[in-house]
Structure formats: structure tokens, C-alpha cells
Design goal:
The chain is α+β, with helices and mostly antiparallel strands and 142 residues long. Helices cover 46% and strands 23% of the residues. A 5-stranded mixed barrel has the order 1-2-3-5-4. The chain starts with a helix and ends with a strand.
Length: 142
Amino acid sequence: MEAIYWLIIFLVLLVIEIFTLGLTTIWFAIGAVTAIIAALAGAEVIVQVMLFVFVSFITLVLTRPIAVKYLGKNTLKTNVDELVGKTAVVTKPIIDENNIGEAKIEGEIWLAKSVDGKMIKEGEIVKVVEVNGVKLIVEKSI
């Protein structure tokens, strides 16, 4: 009878994985399959639960990093993510950490703020460290 419960758990976990594609519940679904097999073999409930936890944990720890590495290869950065690490030209000076200036990058003007609160003069080349909303967080290029 426990096999039915494990089957329900397996199906729920599988449906969650299908809808989220987050590579999180699939490992527990594999653990549920192990528990189903144990239940069909007549193992006690405690053994089924222990197998579920053990197999889920082992598959998660050993295979998830590999799966993320290979399945995440084709993840494209958004346009904003692509700006980090690029250089821009300050078009309106950044005077202190509270005064937001402007910088031009790839033909577009963005609000810009110094990462360390130091002044950056107009015309200086800066490196984009982060994008925070509609502001570039920049530092002077060397």
C-alpha cells in the first residue's frame, strides 16, 4: 500500500519539475522511485523513508552540479547583464555617492553612480561593475 503513496509523491514531484524546470524536484522524484521499489519488495516504512532521503541527497549532491553545468550552457544573458564589465564614458560628472551622473555606453545614456563614492569627471572612461535598476554602478578604469 505504501507504494501507492510513493507513486503519488513521485508524480507530484515530476509535475512540479516539468512546470518549473529548476532541476530541484527531479532528484527527489528519483528517491521516490527507489522508495517505490523498496515498498514493492516489502521493506518497512522506515527503510523506505531512509532510502528516499539517502538516494535523493546523493543524486542531488553528485549529479546536480554536472547537470547545471551542461544544461545551463545555452543560457543567454540579457542586454543589461551584458553591460557588466564593459567600458563607458562619463557624460555628466559624478560628484559623490549621492550625486548621480550620466554615462554613455553602446550609444545609450544611462544614469551612473560611482561604486566607491569618489568623483568621476566628465569624459573619463569607466568600467561598469553592476547594473542597479536604471543606474550603472561604475568605477574608474585604469
